[in-house]
TrEMBL record:
<feature type="transmembrane region" description="Helical">
    <location>
        <begin position="12"/>
        <end position="35"/>
    </location>
</feature>
<keyword id="KW-0547">Nucleotide-binding</keyword>
<dbReference type="InterPro" id="IPR050398">
    <property type="entry name" value="HssS/ArlS-like"/>
</dbReference>
<feature type="domain" description="HAMP">
    <location>
        <begin position="117"/>
        <end position="169"/>
    </location>
</feature>
<dbReference type="GO" id="GO:0005886">
    <property type="term" value="C:plasma membrane"/>
</dbReference>
<dbReference type="InterPro" id="IPR003594">
    <property type="entry name" value="HATPase_dom"/>
</dbReference>
<feature type="domain" description="Histidine kinase">
    <location>
        <begin position="184"/>
        <end position="392"/>
    </location>
</feature>
<keyword id="KW-0597">Phosphoprotein</keyword>
<dbReference type="Pfam" id="PF00512">
    <property type="entry name" value="HisKA"/>
</dbReference>
<dbReference type="InterPro" id="IPR003660">
    <property type="entry name" value="HAMP_dom"/>
</dbReference>
<dbReference type="InterPro" id="IPR036890">
    <property type="entry name" value="HATPase_C_sf"/>
</dbReference>
<feature type="transmembrane region" description="Helical">
    <location>
        <begin position="93"/>
        <end position="115"/>
    </location>
</feature>
<dbReference type="InterPro" id="IPR005467">
    <property type="entry name" value="His_kinase_dom"/>
</dbReference>
<keyword id="KW-0812">Transmembrane</keyword>
<dbReference type="Pfam" id="PF02518">
    <property type="entry name" value="HATPase_c"/>
</dbReference>
<keyword id="KW-0418">Kinase</keyword>
<dbReference type="Pfam" id="PF00672">
    <property type="entry name" value="HAMP"/>
</dbReference>
Length: 392
């Protein structure tokens, strides 16, 4: 029985429907023949009851051309009782009517059985899933174990639910990220705006009494903070545009990429000792968005060069379908708090006091790596180590 169920679970609904209809036709024919023969049997019992009497008492025999011919002078049904006549009429009618009746009954029964066994459960599952999605509730699963058309439809519904859930989670993550971004933006703007406001009030009140040197110094302070605000706004604009970047992977050899990384490292780390090591063969084929890899690499190098004492080291590797860039420096490394928060926007490390940097390098690198199907990992090993992974 289990094997039959498994066999039917892998058949299409069209095939199963054909089997049901064939079973319906065979069943209807068998029942029709059985009931029709039963009606005829009842009629024959009634006729046989009076057949002998009828043949003996109401027959005239003539000889015609040497043959005996029997003529019955009275109808056999005249011997039937009123009940037997009605029964004989009913059996005559039902022996014919039983065919359409049986077919109608079997078709209706087969349709109900087919609906309950093949359609009712998956339709209920899909109706429930549609209702849950309409209510914006995606915390459920669409499970239907058959492999027919409705099973495939349920599987497609489950894929759609998973995609919607992931999309919603990503949307909420982006919303939360934007909230943190706006909070950080507002917080960091407060200081330069306060300075500008104070300096402008100072000029308004005391400009006529201030010396040219004092006015020039105040103007210089204001100009420096205005430039910082412009840079800050530009950084925010760049961050917004990161969401619209499309990843375009193209084939490139490890040798060509290594040369580009080497050149970039020598330029960015001009005042530090720079070394770059490749852990795979130079003929290794890669498939990455070189512009994205370079942008992330430049951000990581700039961070490493700022915190390094003397040396910045880079390691390039490729395995398991990923390209790995590991950038390390010989600085003090990440504090425990930094390891958790350094990739957040506008975050500055515990030891950092430079107001010219906005703490966006690692955050931009994280966003670009994730868009490339990879990630960023922070660790310490005789200094800070940042590993960027890009899915090929």
């Amino acid at each position: 029985m289990g094997k039959i169920k498994n066999l039917f679970s892998k058949r299409s609904i069209k095939t199963i429907f054909i089997w049901y209809m064939l079973g319906c036709i065979v069943t209807a024919l068998l029942f029709s023949l059985l009931l029709s023969n039963t009606c005829q049997f009842v009629q024959s019992r009634i006729y046989n009851k009076y057949q002998i009497i009828y043949e003996e008492t109401h027959k005239e025999i003539e000889v015609e051309k040497g043959h005996l011919i029997a003529y019955y002078t009275r109808d056999l049904r005249s011997y039937f009782t009123p009940f037997e006549q009605r029964l004989d009429d009913a059996m005559s009618f039902f022996s014919i009517a039983v065919y359409p009746i049986c077919f109608i009954f079997c078709i209706v029964g087969t349709s109900v059985l087919f609906y309950r066994r093949q359609l009712q459960t998956p339709l209920a599952i899909l109706d429930h899933a549609a209702g849950q999605i309409a209510d914006n509730n995606l915390d459920f699963k669409v499970v239907y174990n058959k492999e027919d058309e409705l099973g495939k439809l349920c599987a497609s519904f489950e894929k759609m639910r998973v995609a919607l859930q992931e999309s919603n989670e990503e949307m909420w993550r982006q919303m939360e990220e934007r909230k943190r971004l706006n909070t950080a933006f507002s917080h960091d703007l407060r200081t330069p705006l306060t300075v500008l406001k104070g300096q402008s009030e100072l000029l308004q009140q005391y400009a006529p009494k201030m010396s040219a040197e004092k006015v020039s110094g105040t103007s210089e302070i204001m100009h420096r903070h205005i430039v910082r605000l412009e840079s800050y706004v530009q950084t925010m604009s760049d961050l917004q545009r990161l969401e619209d970047i499309e990843i375009i992977r193209k084939p490139i050899s490890m040798e060509m990429l290594y040369e580009q990384l080497q050149e970039t490292g020598e330029v960015v780390c001009i005042d530090k000792m720079f070394s770059c090591e490749c852990k795979v063969g130079m003929d290794t084929a890669l498939c990455v968005d070189t512009a994205i890899v370079q942008r992330v690499f430049e951000n990581l190098l700039a961070n490493a060069a700022r915190f390094a004492k003397e040396r910045v080291s880079v390691s390039v590797d490729s395995s398991d379908g990923y390209l790995y860039l590991m950038v390390s420096d010989d600085g003090t490394g990440f504090a425990e708090k930094d390891l958790e928060n350094a990739t957040k926007p506008f975050y500055k490390t515990v030891s950092e006091t430079d107001n010219e940097h906005f703490g966006m390098g690692l955050n931009i690198g994280k966003i670009l790596c994730e868009k490339h199907g990879g990630y960023i990992r922070l660790s310490n090993r005789n200094g800070a180590v940042v590993t960027a992974a890009f899915r090929q």
